Amino acid sequence: MTKSSLRTASISCLAIWAAVWVLFLLMRFSPLDYRGLPGIGMILLGSLGVALLAPIVAGALAGAALVRQPRVPLNWITLGCAIAAFFGQGLLLLITRWL
Predict the structure, then answer these.
(1) What's the pTM value of the predicted model, to 2 decimals?
(2) Backbone phi, then psi, for 97, in 5-degree steps?
């Protein structure tokens, strides 16, 4: 395993997290009715699971990369972004009261 592979995987998790939330926002503000598509419920449920777990996985991977290379600033930035995504998502879910 190369030294930057954990950091790259963490950044990929954060990119996937951002892409899923952008797709959720696009679906929310789209005039198209996607509820009639067969099987869309399972796809949306799976993408919601990915969106909820991605910041946790990204934080764990960034923490592991930080343990391996504590003096690399990009590892600290990646960990900070993962923590910000986790708390931002939690704040968003608490404010909207949809659960």
Answers:
(1) 0.86
(2) 55, 45
